[in-house]
Every structure is written in C-alpha cells, then in structure tokens.
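INFO worker-7 received task bundle
INFO bundle size: 2
INFO processing item 0
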Amino acid sequence: MIRVFKPSYDNLELEAVAEILKSGWVGLGPKTAEFERAFASFCNVDHCIGLNSGTAAISMALRLLDIGAGDEVIIPTMTFVSGAHCVINRGATPVFVDIDRDTLNLDLNDVRNKISSRTRAIMPVHFGGRPVRMDELKAIAEDIPIIEDCAHAAGSKYRGQSVGSIGAIGCFSFHAVKNLAMGEGGAIVLNDGEMAKRAKKLRWLGINRETWDRTNLDRSYWWEYSIDEIGVKSHMDDIHAAIGLVQLRKLEEANQRRREITLIYRNGLGSIEQLEMPLEETDDFVSSWHIFEIKAQRRDELNLFLDRNGISTGVHYKPLHLYTCYGSQPALPVAEDVFRSILTLPLYPDLTDEEVVYVINTIRKFYNDR
C-alpha cells in the first residue's frame, strides 16, 4: 500500500535518539534548548518554545494573548479540529470563515466581514504549505493579533519571510506526518521576549525554573522554585528534540523533493478534464507542499478505486462548521462545495518516481474506463 503520508527517517535519527538514551537525560533538557535555538534561527525569529504538540502550541498562543470567555477568534473552517477546540477550551468562541476556492486558505473578504468588537485574534492556516496573503490579512486585522497556524508549513515563505515570523505568534506541529516529523511535538515562534519567558514557565506547570536549569544552581537549595501562574505540562523532551534537529537539517532538501513530486503529478494529471490541480508557486511564495490536493469529479468513487489498487488517499478537511460539537453555524458555501471534490494524493520525500507514476496511471485508468 502506498501511504498518503510517511515520515522520512534513516540511521541519523536512530543515532540521535541513541545518543540521548545513553546520556541519561531524556526529558526537557539541553537538546530541547538546542532545537529551540536552531528552529528560531531557521524561522528568523528571536524565540522558539518547544512543546509536545501543535495543539499545545495553539493553546499556548491563545493563553499568551489572554484570550478567554467572551472573546472571539476568527478561524478558517477548512482545517483540523484542534485549533477550534483550543479556542473553546479557553472559553472563547471560534468564528468560522469561508475559504478561497483556489488556495483553500481563508477568504480575506469573509474575515473582514466577520471581525467584531469581540474579535481578539485571527488564526490563519497556511493550508497545505501555501502561505496566506499575510500583508493583506495584516491590513485587514490592523491591531488584532494574528496567530499563524503553520502546522502544514515548515519551510514555507511568503515574500521572502518565513511563515510563523509574520504574525504575533507562529504555531508549528512536528507530528509524525508533518514535513519536520518528530513523531510528536510542536513549537511556538515569536519575537516578544516577555511572552517567551511566560511561555517557558506555562509549559512546565507555571514553574519558574526548569529541571535542567536547576542542575547548575547552588545545590543547597536546588529544589526551590516559584509558581506565579498556573500552567500545564506541555513541554518538548530531548528525545523528540534530537529527532527534530536531524529533521531540521534535512528539511529544505526534503521539501525540494516534495516539490519535484508535485511537478510529476502536475505533468501527469494536468490534462485530465475531470481534475483540477492546486495552484503553482509564484514569485510571492514558496510552499512546503505538505499536501497535494486535487479537486476530482466523482471523488468518492476515485478514492475507492485507488484504495483497491493499493493507494491511500485523504480528505483534508471536512469543514469544521459542519460538526455538531460546534453547534448551529451559518453556511459557508465555498468550503461546503469544495469539500465534495478534494482528495489528497500520496506525498512524502521517500515516495519514488515509479510510485508517483503508478498513482498517475491508476487515476488515468479510472477516468479512461468510465
């Protein structure tokens, strides 16, 4: 079975994990700090705070902005559920906006229409790795903070700027299927030093000195610390950070391989009238190509045909406003229409040219035979 996503690991990740296990320090420690420095430099920001998931990153961003009961956060309906869940878990209300049909990113006009006196943040998702038009969004937002959801977009750039560095806070996921795959992990990136200090405490239950930091203190009172604000346990650990450092060194090459695969797909499938390809890159942006989604006529039949022929696919995503857990929501017609046709094709660095051609030929067979 050709999987839709697959992490790309080799002996370098194995050796990195073995080094941590041998060191005897596997929790939050020096390797996490090393990853944070490296990823902050990669994103061209002052601070990176390593966390245990992308969901924790979004939750932390909302907490740092003091978003709570009575507040609203604007979020695109076409994304994973964790972002909206985090908003609700803060006591706030997610306000869902429609999407742009071509990019699947949030519709900027709908954002403008949904801003109210209660809007405390806007949370764009760089869908599939394609950056949102951040300059236009910032003009619309004015003083409203922007939380960039970069879960799909490690390595993406908008007009030369790394995603995550453009808004107030950038949130990354390093889940096993992501471009930078730790297995589990996440991070926030930002330039605000006071927020960064607060985040470091909040990720470790509000404790003001992490365990590794206390190893270098006067041993007579090493157990002393203060807690001024209640946090949660959501920090990264050194095992995942070690994997992340290896993955970070590979990221640009891996994303280039993803770009090559998308070109093979585009050349092989672009002439099929029943399909619509995702937009190509322009001078304005570089995509991480986390997802290669097509819009396909008879999508459900095609999905089953591919599965019977050993090819996994995905649908990213069912619009959030259609889930009953969010209550009755206004219609968002573009997302509801696009949802019926989108299909995610296999895309990961270890996918061979031969496997990509097999996927293409199988799709061509489906439409030629029907």
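INFO item 0 finished
INFO processing item 1
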Amino acid sequence: MNIHIKNIRENECVCDALILPAVEGISVNLKALGASVTALMKRISAAEFQGKKNELLLIPAPADIRPKRILLVGLGKKEAVNPETVRQAGGKALGLLRNSGISTAALSAAMLSDLALSPAYFIEGGLLGLYTYDCYKKEKETRTVRAITVLTSPSKSLDDQLRTAEALASGVCFARDLVNAPSNDMTPSDMAKAALSLKGKNMVVRVLEKKACEKLGMGSYLSVSKGSAEPPKFIILEYNGAAKPPVVLIGKSVTFDSGGINIKPSDGLEKMKYDMAGGAAVLGIMKAAAALQLPVNLIGILPATENLPGGHATRPGDIVTSIDGRTIEIINTDAEGRLTLADALGFAKKYKPSAVIDIATLTGACSIALGNETIALMGTDRSLVSAFRQSADFTNEKVWEMPLYDEYLEYLKSDVADIKNIGGRTGSLVTSACFLKEFAGELPWVHLDIAGTAWTEKDRPYTPKGASGVGVRLIFDLLLRLKGKAA
C-alpha cells in the first residue's frame, strides 16, 4: 500500500473516503472540515453512531468537499484511548473500506494529535487487518486499499514511525503466510528456502544438513525427524547490525506434528501445520530488523523438522544424547518440540549471547491454562522478563509469567537417563519450560509458549482468522527496549 503524508485541509484531499477518528459522544475534531461537514455531524443520531470502540459509519460526503465519503471510526471513551485502541480502529476501518471496494483513503490525524497518539498505530493496524491468504483459491481477493494519505504536518519522526509500522506489518504477514501454508508446501526444506530469501548485505543464512547435525551431536533434535522422509534442516540466520554480543532468537519449527508414535487424535490434526509458528515469527522479526537496519546483532535459529510415525521413528522409551552430552529418555514422542529446542539452546551457547529467547507452540496445556488470549512467559533473567511485560502492554500481545520452581525438576527425573522429556499431565505447562531451562543453563533466557495464540479461529480487529503472526511485534518491541529505542 502507498502511504503518503500531506499537510492539507481534510476537505481539500481528493480520495474515495476520508477517515475521521472519533471518541465516544461523537467528538470529532472539525477544525479543518468546514461548515457542511459540521452540519452533517450534527444530523447523525446516537442510533447511527456514538463513537464507541471499533464502531464504524460510512456515509456520503457533502458535495462541497473533495473526499467522496466520510468514514467515522469510534475510539471509545477519551480517557481510555491508547495505541492498541488506535491499531484496532485502523484494522476495522481499512477492512470495511476494502470490503466496500474503496481503494484510496485519507486519515485525518487531528483527533489523534489531540490525544497525543501517532497515526502510525492506525496504519499498522490497517496493514495487519488487510491481510488475506488466498494462495490456493481460484478466485483471488482483488479488492484492497491501495493508497492512504495521512493528513498532518510531515516530520522525520512520523516518517520513521510509518516506516516501522510498514516493516512490522510486512514481517507479521510474512510469518502468517508461512504458517498458513499447508505442510506439503511448507516442509523443512521450504522453511530453509524462506530463510534464504532473507539473505542480504547484513544477513547471512546457513542451513545445516543431517550429517552436519550428527557431527555436532544433535541427537535430541534429529530423533524427532527419524519417522519422516523429509530431511531435517537446521537453519541459522545471522544479522549483523552492531558490534555487540548478539540476541539469539530460537523458533520451534516442526512443520507438521502428528505426535509421532504417540499419535495425536484426528480432531484438529490438520492445524498441526502451525507447529512451526515460532520459527515463522523469528523469520518475520529478522525480516523487519533487516528492513529497518536495526542496530543490534541477531541470531535466528530454526531447528526445522517434521514429526511423523514411520518404520524408523523414535519410540517411547528410547534414549538420545543432546548436543551438550546429556541423555534424554523419551517418554512421549508428542513432546517433541522441546527435543528440537534443547539442541538449539545448546548450539546458541557458542555465540556467547546477551540474551536468548525461544518462541514455540510448545504445549496444549498453555491453551488450557490461558486460552487463546495470552502467551505463557517463563525465564531466568528478571530484566528480560520485566522488559517483556512492558512490550506486551504496548503491543497487546499479552504475556503471563508462570513459575520455574526447582521442585518441578523432580517431575522430569528419569530412572535410566539424565532427564526425561515429559513430566506427566500435572504441571505440564511449567515442566516443559523447566526441561528447556536445563539446556539453557546460565544463559539469560526467556521462553514464550504461543500454543494458544499462534492461531485464531475468529476474525479480530487486525488479525484475520488463521495464523496470527504472534510474537513478531512483541519481540521486535523488546529489541527496541533493549536498545533504548522503544516507542
């Protein structure tokens, strides 16, 4: 979408629709709209529009102004308006315009300026809400909002904010595309191709094949791939944006998870294509970082594989050896994500990182505990955990911290190996993270379980049904906070 900034009066802007944000009580900033629009607003009844959050009203514009239509967008009660309110308004507004066949729009920034909020939040939500996935449909969605003009005074600050909004939306939608793709077209090899597409001046991408992983001693990761005919791909992205220790991002990248020998129930099994949503989020973050030349060093690690039953598949009771020499008794082959992440965490130590963040659709228990609204957060570094809470509040990608008490390690004690991969149903959300903690060791580490948030069964204001792309905006904002550049 083409985004422009123009310092002209709202009634002089040529467009299909002029967007007017309004707070509850139909309080619209009318300073630059003229008498005819003011008179029009006075004729709108409370039954038609009250300015409530995400309320919309599309009406013909008066004949003496240049916009063809006016779209009123409710922000809710004035004292409650915040960046998330504006994002949701953007998603709802541009979605309505797209569905109405409107291709050019202008956003009046006057009300947002009165509220000390950037119009970039509106654009971010709008770009995210316009996302569609119709790659496999014969009839494609051709309607979209192709251009939007932000009506306000130009500034470098706003330019930068809009550029960030575009890059973030692009990263989220890139991740959504990967997750929405069916597993026959999103194998570990396809994930590697997606990663290689990000190669550039400051981005090096390497793919370790099975033999290289065997030489490194990645028995835990490789055990998951044994039942599949698709070769595993251990994907490494290195983004060089600063001369400092890197932040390592590890994304679970199981491109289809049948459960292995401990096969899952058939109900909903088709959605197990989204078990690589953590890896997709990491790729989305790396894409945005490169586009914005973020001044950080980032390492992305995606231990990509399928988890299928087969004649060579790992069996319950098998014992494998991880990259750090620790033996793991595999009690349940459907607790496979942690096996891939264990070796990824071990591999990450070579970079001597300033922080390690793993993001994974790790446990069904996460959905049971927190539903589809909240990411489970666990970690060993209090400053990282605190920063994540701030980023969650800002991005509305909500997190809730769960405990990592030493007592939970008792659940993972094995009679025949150093550790077992599952501690039973009781406390399984926490014990999965405790397992990872053992392999993170002394690293400053945070774990994000996105099992409940990586997929949505209903349309949300700026997240259409399907893959959500969760984690991209959250972690990107965290990176900005770590660099002291948060919005």
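INFO item 1 finished
INFO post-check item 1: Residues 172 and 289 are 12 Å apart (CA to CA).
INFO post-check item 1: The chain has 14 helices and 20 strands.
INFO worker-7 idle
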